[in-house]
Amino acid sequence: MLLSGSPTGALSGSLPETVDVCVVGGGQSALALAFHLRRAERRRTGTPLTVVLLDARAAPGGAWQDAWPSLRLFSPAGYSSLPGRLMPRPPGDEPPDAAHVVDYLADYEQRYDVDVRRPVRVRAVERADDGLLVRLRLVGGRVAVRRLRALLHVAERWGDGRLHLTGRANLQLRALPADPLSPGAVAAEVVDAVLATGLVPSRSHELVRNLMVSPQTGLAGGRADLRP
Fold first, then answer.
1. How far apart are CA 30 and CA 52, in angstroms?
2. Cα separation, 209 vs 201, whole angstroms
3. Whole-model pTM over 0.85
4. H or E segment at 152?
């Protein structure tokens, strides 16, 4: 991974040589991912994962820093929160404006001590070798750390050594070998290893559409608990 940054910024410090998870970006989805990964591993082992976010911007707030001051969320603050921390209600309980969201994201980083290095721009990521791809659809973007580690083992043994997170909360394995008897299909031993992680409900899972749910499902009321 090729990085660049301000001489007085994050790169002047000690950037870890290895981390459990490195996330490119420092916006809402990156903060939520860091929260869930660290909490899940802490509950399992008592020690949180080392999660580092690399953000090209100089300050917290993600793309909301570029929004028009008059831009507002389409929903009230109570339905626009990140996991673990409700967004404070603005005066009059109106939908939050851009400045309110930026302040909330900055407070979220501090509250959960999220390790965000900025300004750091990722200029290149090592390209994966040619190969096939497997995409796993996750309900609500939820995945147990033990299953994530098992999937990473598959990626390290047969793929490019990485788990790729898509914009729709899917996980992807890339650069996988093909079945010698069927070049368009993933090798049978890789399929068996992926199935063994418990993340695939059936071999026809690719035909199932995404089910996008709130990270608060089952935790903050609602009509149904959609956790897997």
1. 10
2. 13
3. no
4. helix 145-158
| Residue-by-residue pLDDT tens, the chain, 228 positions | 445 554 444 443 456 666 788 898 999 999 999 999 888 877 778 777 889 999 999 999 988 899 888 888 877 767 778 999 989 888 877 888 989 999 999 999 999 999 999 888 887 665 545 678 888 877 666 788 899 999 999 999 999 888 888 766 678 888 888 888 887 788 899 999 999 998 876 666 555 555 566 666 667 766 776 665
C-alpha distances in Å from residue 39, one per residue of 44, 89, 99, 114, 206: 9, 26, 28, 12, 29
Cβ proximity of 22 and 54 under 8 Å: yes
Smallest Cα–Cα separation from 79: which of 92, 67, 95, 68?
95
Query: CA torsion 52→57→61→64, rounded to 10°?
Result: -140
Q: Is 36 in contact with 142 (CB distance < 8 Å)? A: yes
Taking each helix axis from N to C end, the angle separating 28-45 and 145-158, rounded to the nearest 10 degrees, works out to 100
DSSP state of 97: B
- Would you say 189 and 183 are in contact if contact means Cβ atoms under 8 Å apart? no
E strand segments, the chain: 2-5, 21-24, 51-54, 115-117, 120-124, 132-137, 164-165, 170-176, 178-179, 182-186
